Amino acid sequence: MKFKFTIFILMILLSNLQIVMAAENDYGIVKAWFDRKNATVEDIQLKIGQPVEVKVEVISKIKGDVLLILREPGVTKAFNVVNGPSKEDDRVDNLKVESGWSKTYTWTVAPSGAWKNGNAPINIFVQFNKGMDNRIIQFTIANPYILDEQYTGAPSNPTPQPAASGTPAKPAPFPSVLIAVVMLLVAWRWLKYY
């Protein structure tokens, strides 16, 4: 009975971890964030010229080469790279890395105005090469909707303002913590009856 309870508690704790969109194969791991949100980000709107941060962490499990490309799947390029290790669709090569090597890349991108009133996905492509063998990881980091409006310089994610009474606004409780507490109470009641 204690073994089942231990497994149940471990399942609750593991389900409580914040998940970052990560893809993994036997050669490496790739994690990504868009404007500090775990990839894949949906339901975001951007104005023309509004800068956002794209962050990608690459971890190699092999001794070999790692290349990555920040890309858009469409013909019309909706974003300009304002700052970062490469332009869009240019390769970033990491040659002769060791197993356990990791590196985080950060780009600042902004809608160019070439595409508007529609979605424009931003993808990451990473290839791990071990000799003549390779493994590829690729996924969409974000799929923002580009508005036909010019960005004026306001922050994309404004910080909460203090309430009218002068007390700071409180963030909502983290939902998975509440779920974990409820599950623990259910487990406790279950064990009490069995």
What does this molecule look like?
With 194 residues, this protein is α+β, with helices and mostly antiparallel strands. It has a domain at 21-153: Immunoglobulin-like, CATH 2.60.40. It is built from two helices and 13 strands. The chain has helices at 2-15, 175-193, and strands at 22-24, 28-34, 37-38, 45-48, 52-60, 64-71, 79-83, 91-97, 102-111, 118-119, 122-130, 133-142, 145-150. Strands 1, 2, 3, 5, 7 and 9 form a six-stranded antiparallel beta sheet that branches. It has a four-stranded antiparallel beta sheet with strand order 8-6-11-12, with no helix packed on it. A three-stranded mixed beta sheet has the order 4-13-10, with no helix packed on it. Helix 1 packs antiparallel against helix 2. The longest helix has 19 residues, at 175-193. The protein is flat. 18% of the residues are buried.
Quick overview of this protein structure:
By secondary structure, the protein is of the alpha+beta class.
Q: Specify the helix fraction band.
A: 10-25%
Report the β-strand fraction as a percent range: 35-45%
Mean pLDDT: 79
Biggest sheet architecture: 6 strands, antiparallel
Top-tier CATH class of the domain at 21-153: Mainly Beta
Give the structural class.
alpha+beta
Termini separation comes to: 9 Å
What is the CATH topology descriptor of the domain at 21-153? Answer: Immunoglobulin-like
* Uncertain residue ranges: 13-21, 156-176
3D shape: flat
| Radius of gyration from CA coordinates | 22 Å
